[in-house]
């Protein structure tokens, strides 16, 4: 009998069971995917690659440097444009967490 009383008291102090569920609509921001050209890889052409060994003539070095400047300029233009696209539109509200 004592065991039954202890068991009943233990069950009475247990956590309450959730029976009510609240459903609500929560607005969530959806971003527009970035265009594929934002992920384009840039590299110099095989004709102007810096050799692993040896030296370059002044003309080869100038050609390589010009190609590198061109690639860096393209990359800078790409990252600037894609960074502006990646900024959150302030007109889109944030949803609740």
Structure report:
The chain is elongated and about 80 Å long. It has helices spanning 2-12, 58-86. By secondary structure, it is an all-alpha fold. The chain is 41% helix and 0% strand. The relative contact order is 0.15.
Question: What are the key terms here?
Answer:
97 residues; mainly alpha
Mind sketching the topology for me?
Elements: H1 2-12, H2 58-86
Shape: elongated
What structural category do the secondary elements indicate?
mainly alpha
Unreliable stretches covering 5 or more consecutive residues: none
Strand content: under 5%
Largest sheet: none
Order of helices and strands: HH
Helix content: 40-55%
Q: Report the mean per-residue pLDDT as an integer.
A: 75
Count all strands and give the number: 0
Distance between the termini: 50 Å
Q: If helices are DSSP runs of H or I spanning 4 or more residues, what is the number of helices?
A: 2
| Rg measurement, Å | 32 Å
In a nutshell, what does this entry contain?
The protein is an all-alpha fold. Helices cover 41% and strands 0% of the residues. The chain is built from 2 helices and no strands.
């Amino acid at each position: 009998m004592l065991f039954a009383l202890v068991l009943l008291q233990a069950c009475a102090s247990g956590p309450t069971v959730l029976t009510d569920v609240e459903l609500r609509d929560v607005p969530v921001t959806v971003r527009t995917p970035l265009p594929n050209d934002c992920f384009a890889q840039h590299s110099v052409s095989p004709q102007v690659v810096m050799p692993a060994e040896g030296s370059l003539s002044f003309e080869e070095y100038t050609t390589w440097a010009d190609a590198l400047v061109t690639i860096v300029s393209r990359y800078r233009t790409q990252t600037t444009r894609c960074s502006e696209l990646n900024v959150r539109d302030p007109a889109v509200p944030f949803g609740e967490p």
